[in-house]
UniProtKB/TrEMBL annotation:
Positions of transmembrane segments: none
Protein name per UniProt: Glycosyltransferase, group 2 family protein
Organism superkingdom: Bacteria
GO MF term (any one): hexosyltransferase activity
UniProt cross-references to InterPro entries, sorted A to Z: Glyco_trans_2-like, Nucleotide-diphossugar_trans
Entry keyword Glycosyltransferase: yes
CDD domains named in the record: Glyco_tranf_GTA_type
Pfam families recorded: Glycos_transf_2
Keywords for the protein's UniProt record, in alphabetical order: Glycosyltransferase, Transferase
Domain Glycosyltransferase 2-like: residue ranges: 8-129
SUPFAM superfamilies (UniProt xref): Nucleotide-diphospho-sugar transferases
């Protein structure tokens, strides 16, 4: 591929033959920038491999194919990151698709402002329809569109909301920034985006939100967790992530009260969903600066206090 690559698009693929063509069509329709498509075939056993080879033959100058044994989403994304050469990175799940013009608009903003991370809006799709889900959480609490913040400002402004998007697919990342801080996805866990996004935002010096919906997120039939065992495992992994983030916060002497709020809320959500007890983690969470954040926690904690007062002392 000749010249500077503006955007590396990393697509992990595992048995998505039904959706892969639409995904790839939307990506190769991109115009007016120099981009590369890194397709990581994570051990697919359906016709996904044949579809990948077809597009590789159509666009050989733009396509890199990595064939590997199945290792999960984090492993596939990390494999793509190692090969990437673009100024910016986009992670696109192979059952989703994009607006080829709007992603260029988002990228243009990122390059002009030399951002570490840029956030966009996304459109939620099921089998029947697509609905725009605007990221109003970013424009609330002084997170204004097209205004540059550093990562810590982002936390203190955006995490005051009940919910924040941590999905890596809804952002573009500066590749030099990711490599400077060795930011990769932790392998072997669920909720990998959660941990990756927290670390990225912590290290970021320049982040910005743009009200441009370029990503179509698809909720597939059967993709929602179906087994009790898998559900329990995911909740355990979320607890491990919370523990790691608490240690990270302590080691970096962070005074991010909004971070405390989110971690506490996440813990209660885990307990509510999985009925999991973890006394050591509970103790760590209770070490958060309760007096400062308790007023913010009321809205989150009140529904749970009656259920969990015996397990957690707050």
């Amino acid at each position: 591929m000749e010249g500077i690559i503006d955007l590396s698009i990393i697509i992990p693929v595992y048995n998505v033959e039904r959706y892969l063509v639409k995904c790839l069509d939307s990506i190769y329709a991109i115009r007016n920038i120099n981009f590369e498509v890194i397709i990581v075939n994570d051990g697919s056993t359906d016709s996904s491999s044949a579809i990948i080879q077809h597009y590789c033959s159509l666009f050989p100058q733009k396509t890199i194919v990595i064939n590997k044994e199945n290792g999960g989403l984090s492993s596939a994304r990390n494999a793509g990151l190692k090969e990437a050469q673009g100024s910016y990175i986009a992670f696109i799940d192979s059952d989703d698709f994009i607006d080829s013009d709007k992603i260029v608009s988002v990228l243009t903003n990122a390059k002009e402002m030399q951002l570490d991370i840029i956030f966009g809006d996304y459109i939620y799709c099921d089998e029947k329809s697509c609905i725009l889900l605007t990221s109003k959480r970013y424009s609330m609490n002084h997170m204004k569109a097209y205004q540059v913040y550093n990562g810590l400002e982002y936390w203190e402004n955006a995490l005051n909301k009940d919910q924040i998007s941590v999905e890596a697919c809804f952002q573009l990342y500066n590749l030099s920034f990711l490599r400077k801080y060795n930011l990769l996805f932790k392998e072997g866990i669920y909720h990998e985006d959660f941990l990756f996004s927290y670390y990225c935002i912590f290290y970021a010096k320049k982040v910005m939100y743009v009200p441009i919906a370029y990503y179509y997120y698809r909720q597939r039939p059967g993709s929602i967790m179906s087994s009790a065992e898998l559900h329990y495992m995911k909740q355990l992994h979320k607890l491990k992530i919370i523990n790691e983030l608490l240690n990270f916060k302590k080691n970096h002497l962070l005074e991010l009260y909004s971070w405390d709020t989110v971690l506490l809320a996440t813990y209660f959500d885990v307990v509510r969903r999985g009925k999991i007890k973890n006394d050591s983690l509970c103790f760590s969470l209770n070490e958060c600066k309760k007096i400062t954040i308790i007023s913010r926690l009321k809205k989150i904690l009140l529904p749970f206090l009656g259920l969990f007062a015996k397990n957690v002392n707050i």
